[in-house]
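Lab channel / #folding
Pinned by the channel admin:
"Please post every new chain as: sequence first, then the structure tokens as a reply. Keep commentary short and put observations after the output so the thread stays searchable."

First post following the new format, from NK:
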Amino acid sequence: MIRLTTQGDVAANVLEWIERDRKLAFVDRLGWPLRHKDGRERDQFDSPSTLILLAGDPLVFSLRILSEQHSMVRSLWAEVSGHIEPGSHEMSRWVSHGSHPLSATREHVRGMMALFRGLEWFDMFSIATDRVERAHGVMGMKPTEKFSVAPDVNFCKWNLREQLTG
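Reply from TO:
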């Protein structure tokens, strides 16, 4: 099951779980200096109208979807703006929830990519550490364009017209 909804339409307990896992992943494990409160990570890009993708039942992973006009990447890494296609979407705050077999994650990634294509969201982008970018590849999401923006930080772009997941 792949569900695209707004954060405002996600049950409060599920949104809390997602935000707690985001803090564990990005603040505790990766050591990123992100704002957090009460064990939850939220930032200025989170709002009731922000899109969120929920994959699996039970939840396998979640990620936030931002339009290119209001993207975190455009705000924080202005130097990559020329690589962002008009009408494209940013995938951010991708986090796994619990332990799941790689086959289940790949199945949900294929479903996510099919959903994006069905919405005619052909150009997607993200900022990812080297490790996260490698994990994307294992899940079947090899970027069609990638370059470093800082040590261990990459701008990744997917052209879904060209790429089919494995």
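NK: The chain has a mean pLDDT of 91.
TO: also worth noting, The chain has one domain: 2-159.
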